[in-house]
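If it is no trouble, can you show me the amino acids of a protein and the tokens describing how it folds?
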Amino acid sequence: MVPYWAFLYNDFVSEAQPSRLKARLERLEAAIYERMQELAKDSDSHAEKVSIQEACDKIHEIKIKQLGFPAVHSETDGSQRIQDSSLHLPS
């Protein structure tokens, strides 16, 4: 079964209109955040966490190239990149 965040991610990366990208971005980032909360309790979730990190890298790229977000480069290692500014997570 495909996780909900992955379904939203596929819709996001296939969208060409910036106005629709922005709307999809909020739902996608919220879904990723929620899934990461769930996976934090699961020791068998390494593969999905890697998939989420790869998705976040692509999301960050799209945000910069297509939505005009500022480029932010993280000095952290890969295990901490999910917490950088590539996601605007709800507080």
Summary: Residues 4-70+77-83 form one domain.
